[in-house]
Specification:
Distance between the termini: 35 Å
Structural class: mainly beta
Strand content: 35-45%
Radius of gyration: 16 Å
């Protein structure tokens, strides 16, 4: 396994210099297949149906996308039926945000990892109060902050600008970095956050902050911790 420890994964532009990580128990695990979004979902964005070009101004329901960047100068773009972001020379992130106007109950993505080292990743989050990353010292909050790299995953909450790691683990074998379709899906239900990972495993983590933080802005993040990280391409994203 590479040097992607939970501490390294958490050292993202949003959270630089924001205090120590706290590891908290409470993760249940069962085996399951990742489920595609059903018709009850309010927004399913199939990027394969979109022409090549910049990110559209709104989603399928007319809600505006808001993009934030750190260490990245352009994008994201639709290329070959997938949403992709610029790969920076070093650390950098692109955040694609969608304000639902109500609590995020579910979000996820069908995606691929491309060639590269294991320091590329995606993150799913649900920001509260319209305070969006990046930036040091901002008082952002989210009831879910799920990071997936080719070799590890990490789930936590962001409370008052600080990340609290609640659960983490590794993938054995490492996820493919050859364009193989993968899927990640998250459901929020009160204090419980249930997520199905690309290896098909299902985990439920309960924490009162996942209930008290009213995350209303769904976020799909592209992230690279160092040069050469495996690039992420989203083929489909969803939320409700």
């Amino acid at each position: 396994m590479s040097g992607n420890s939970p501490e390294l994964i958490a050292r993202r532009p949003l959270l630089a210099g924001l205090g120590a990580l706290v590891l908290i128990a409470g993760c249940g695990r069962t085996e399951a297949r990742a489920a595609a979004p059903g018709p009850e979902d309010l927004s399913v964005q199939d990027w394969a149906t979109q022409p090549d070009g910049p990110l559209p101004a709104t989603d399928a329901l007319g809600r505006p996308y808001v993009v934030r960047r750190s260490g990245v100068t352009g994008g994201p773009w639709i290329v070959g039926g997938a949403l992709t972001a610029q790969t920076p020379a070093d650390r950098g992130a692109t955040y694609v945000n969608l304000d639902l106007g109500t609590r995020v109950e579910r979000l996820g993505a069908r995606f691929v990892f491309g060639p590269g080292n294991t320091d590329g990743s995606l993150c799913l989050a649900a920001w509260a109060g319209g305070v969006l990353p990046p930036g040091e010292g901002i008082r952002s909050a989210t009831p879910v902050h799920l990071v997936v790299t080719p070799d590890r995953w990490l789930h936590g909450v962001v409370d008052d600008g600080a990340l609290v790691v609640l659960a983490s683990g590794g993938f054995d074998p490492v996820l493919p970095r050859d364009g193989t379709p993968l899927e990640v899906d998250v459901t929020l239900d009160g204090p419980a956050v249930t997520f199905v990972l690309p290896d098909g495993s299902e985990h439920t983590v309960s924490d009162p902050r996942s209930n008290s933080i009213a995350g209303t802005t769904a976020c799909w993040e592209f992230y690279q911790d160092r040069a050469g990280g495996s690039g992420v391409r989203f083929h489909q994203t969803w939320c409700r």
